[in-house]
Please model this.
Amino acid sequence: MRHLVLLDAWYADIVYSSEWKHFWKLVAQLNPADGFASREDYVKTFLTVFPRSDRDVVEASATTLVCDEADKLHRPRTTDPSNTWESQPTEDEENELRYKVACPTLVAQAEHSELHLPNDNRRVAAIYPIGEAATIKGAGQNLANENTAFTTNLLASFIGRP
Model:
């Protein structure tokens, strides 16, 4: 591995913002059991959950929705927010992995993160041997949709370094 990027990611020792439980309830709207009637319904719901998102980017992502037997659209990979903790490494497992990372590591956090406390990325970046913190201005937790150009340029610049 030559570079590691954590985008508004989960990590051990984190103190979550007061918004995080409410946030996951909102995100669950993007995975309704009965699906979406149309791509536009998905786009409208997405923009309600993530109002800072770029509509063009969300519309492009809507093309990846898959149709079920009832002609309802679903996201190709559904995540149940109630199971997110189960998929996370324990604090000890994460620390063990973290200490093995020898490559440059970028810890990017959204300026308006619904999960993290402001500037927590700086604390986490300092843990890595070659850690760097960045803030995605004007974005919330869904960085790629909310400030796509800046996020893309930041990643390209970071990964392009030796």
The first helix runs from residue 20 to 27. DSSP finds seven helices and five strands in the chain. The chain has a mean pLDDT of 86. Helices lie at 20-27, 39-49, 55-62, 91-100, 120-125, 143-146, 148-159.
